[in-house]
Amino acid sequence: MNGVTVRKVETGRDLRNFIRFPWKVYKDDPRWVPPLIMEMKDRLNRRKHPFFEHAEADYFLACRGPETVGRIVALVDRNHNESHGEKTAFFGLYESFDDLDAARALIDTAAAWGRERGMERLRGPVNLSMNDECAFLLEGFDSPPVIMMPYNPPYYLTLMEQCGLAKAKDLYAFLKDRDRHLSAKVEGFLAGLRSSKQFTLRAATKAGLREDALNIAKIYNAGWQKNWGFVPWTDKEMKHMVKNLATFADLDLVIFAEHKGQTVGFAAALPDFNQVFIKMNGRLFPFGLFKFLAGKRKITGVRAIVFGVVPEFMHTGLAYLLYDEFEKAIIRKGYYWCELSWQLEDNEAINRFAASIGANLYKKYRIYEKQIKPAGA
Fold first, then answer.
1. Which of the 8 DSSP states describes residue 51?
2. What is the per-residue pLDDT across 267-282, written as a single tens digit (0 to 9) for each?
3. Do 102 and 223 share a structural domain?
4. Can you give the pTM of this predicted structure?
5. 162 and 181 both lie in a single domain
6. Is residue 376 part of a domain?
């Protein structure tokens, strides 16, 4: 396609090229946050990462002559398709120059890869699961991404449309600073809920971290299973994530609610370590570690990754109680703002909740898709 060829990543050299290619795309972009190279190697390790126990993937590079001009992952997540009764292939970790021929070659490769496996739809980006970073940034290019949120050049949106993809779903990110207070109505509601003493709140502990992680997976899987794009967390995936995040997590920002000794809800956040990673050029060791240790004390905000409440307590106001305790912990730790992300554009309940606690919609993201069924199928 106008001199562009696509080849599968098969060697260690190919994989290094795949991982390092974004440095070429974003070399002049001060808002891009380089990923940790060791984390990328872990994520892409099909022999060891638990994601691949229920997923299949191949990695591809687009080249024009000797020069790499783009990359993509094509994958099928069986857990997603079983949960939704779909035949969907995903693409992810997409990067390219502003090069329509490269984009078409990459998307066509992912589509053909999915079609060969009996899939009927191509959707993305997901990196590599809907429980990881996903979507392209649509609005809000004026600031860097927070931890575990995507960032991309604006031209990606045009390239996707030119490749025949259309909007599947938009995702929202809300921002709340510590100076915005709850309304009198919400405060009154919270006072009544506290006085009832039906819930006990506690922070996660290092000693109980593995058990707490499994509780998060259980509550998340029960509470979110009807949501668009939901993918259940497996126990192995949750344990793997906890192992990776143990270095970065602030356990005071992981709050659990208990009712009669049973865990019935949680709120989890991470400090915005992207404020540190943006200066580390993808390397934690050896010298990046000093930047990390020095920079983590200067982090100004957090990302609320997920709230979860078991179905029988969803309409009790427990989410407000969890957020209130969560916000107190944020302020006590010296942070100034919190991003709540991501949230589905049509999840009216959670979007109303964000507005009711004083958060403002400030970034939007888009997931694309197109049909890939053979003609007449």
1. G
2. 999 999 999 999 999 9
3. no
4. 0.94
5. no
6. no
